[in-house]
Amino acid sequence: MYIDPHVHMSARTTDDYQAMAEAGVVAVIEPAFWLGQPRTSVDTYKDYLASLVGWERFRASQFGIKHYCTIGLNSKEANNEPLAEAVMEILPLFLAKEGVVAVGEIGFDEQTALEEKYFRAQLELAKQFDLPVMVHTPHRDKLKGTILTMDICEEHGLLPSQVVIDHNNENTVKAVLDRGYWTAFTLYPQTKMGSERMVNIARQYGSERIFIDSSADWGVSDPMAVPKTASLMLQSGIPQAEVHQICYANALAAYQQSGQIAAEDWQTADFDQAELFEGNSVLRGQKPIKSSEA
Amino acid sequence: MKNIQNQPLYDSLRAALSTGPGWQNLTANIDVSRDKCTRAGFFLNFAMAPRWFKSATTRLELDANLDPFGALQNWSLGQAARLLILLELAALVDTDEYTAAISELFKTADVNELIVLVKSLQFIPDGETFVERAREAARSNIESVFCAVAHHTDYPQRYFDTAGWNQLVLKAAFLAVPIWSIVGVRERNNSALVAMLQDYARERQAASRPVPWDLYCCPAWNASTDVDFQFLEHQWVISSPKIRAAIALGLRENKLPKAQTLAAQLPDQPSNTLRWEDLAAWDN
């Protein structure tokens, strides 16, 4: 049983859902992010957030996967101040929806003043709505940006246990673990972390507060990264209990603080592909599957 | 604060909710809204209400006269709290703000919020203002959202135009959810709808797919021409016992002599005491 706690399923196909379900993925968390190009209006943002709590949640259920999301203004689009202001106004409409497990993914891209302004404002929202925070650490100047992120979280009175720092690597892992944060790793085929490197991290640092995700999106990425890495860890002699922590239990513990995700959700999950959503079946003539048959 | 428009329902909801674990949270937040009603506060109360009552297993029980079609049967206290918040809003703000705030809720609703909003339309002031939102629900293929507008409410019967009504019934056939129990299905039956249902039945049969048994109530109630009766006779020949019984029952309830004659001539007559709700329980 696995959880992929950071995957942009809106950008993926039903084949991915099928493969993930077959490989044992029971739940996914989809953070709000950009579209690969910047949005130009708050209305498209509103529709996107509505689709995360609506259509995508339904679509996942058709494959027996429970779908959760995080809601926030991402760092890239925080640099468009008029847009960012308008998005900040609508975020409270979405943060209390069913299945929203964190404010996220928020943090830094270029580490500009505007990114910092909206990161801070969203930390306040997380406190107001009593939600954990999912932090995107920058791809460039990563260590400095990661340390700055943690400093700001503490300045706003958040506990490290309420914050997930994502996209870590060998250079950031110690700093993040030492300060008590949830330490997440994104496994990418070519950038960020690879599965072999992750095995070494697990060997060196163990499984406490560490978990992994695929961050699969519209780019070259692998939605099977979590189950594949779990297999490699087991083959490499990492104990099963530790693999379970890294690939399932730690992510659940971190986001369970929202009160919006619990193991019972998929232990009793029932799905029926015959149900349709907004006039769109995810099926195109295949026989619907019911969970009792899957 | 203006008067509550649906006072008996409002009082009953308050009485039911006052026994629940979220009552203090709910009343505290309602008091804040009464003191200074903001849209953000309203959105927050509506979103959070089910969480305040999360541990409550009590189900809402209301007098039948307050809920004539049974829309609120088996509602949780969290859902009841959301309806109460909608009734409160109407008494706190002017009509324009009331309409704008509820429209915004519709646009950003998750599935469970949408179901509560749609089911509430028959109970809240100026419900007819939101007829387009109800029409959207009637286009939904999320069965639970569709059924919120199609069943246990006379809202479509009262506020949908003929085109909207016909699409609602056709969509019920498409989703294979009950048609016979839609409020107003007899009163609003019409020839254009019957033609669409006949076409739908033929289309399904051409693809060797099943036809919903209760699709036949509308053509049988409405049959008046030779073509209508030929359609029913042919369907009777090629269909299951349940559909045959539905055709016979529909023809019996059609006042035209020709319909009565045909109903009497059909072999394998269902019992004279058979009702639609009995037939619904038959195996397909």
Description of the molecule:
The complex is a heterodimer of chains A (294) and B (284). Chain A has 294 residues and is α/β, with parallel strands linked by helices. Chain A is built from eleven helices and eight strands. Chain A has helices spanning 14-22, 42-53, 55-61, 81-95, 113-129, 142-155, 173-178, 195-205, 225-235, 240-256, 264-267, and strands spanning 2-4, 25-31, 66-71, 100-107, 133-136, 163-166, 182-186, 210-213. In chain A, helix 5 links the parallel strand 4 (100-107) and strand 5 (133-136). In chain A, helix 2 (42-53) packs parallel to helix 3 and helix 2 (42-53) runs parallel beside helix 4. The model of chain A is unreliable at 276-280, 284-288 and 290-294 (pLDDT under 50). Helix content of chain B is 62%, strand content 0%. In chain B, helix 3 (39-52) runs antiparallel to helix 4 (77-92), helix 6 (111-120) packs parallel to helix 8 (143-150) and helix 8 (143-150) packs across helix 10 (162-175). The longest helix of chain B has 16 residues, at 77-92. Chain A binds chain B through residues 46, 49-50, 53-54, 57-58, 90, 92-94, 96-99, 259, 275-281, and chain B through 40, 43-44, 47-48, 51, 104, 107-113, 139-143, 175.
Question: Which labels suit this protein?
Answer:
heterodimer; A: alpha/beta; 11 helices; 8 strands; B: 284 residues; mainly alpha
Low-confidence stretches of chain B: none
Number of helices of chain B: 16
Counting helices, strands and paired strands, the structural category of chain B is mainly alpha
- β-strand amount of chain B: under 5%
- First-to-last CA distance of chain A: 15 Å
Largest sheet of chain B: none
Number of strands of chain B: 0
Distance between the termini of chain B: 54 Å
**Beta strands of chain A, count:** 8
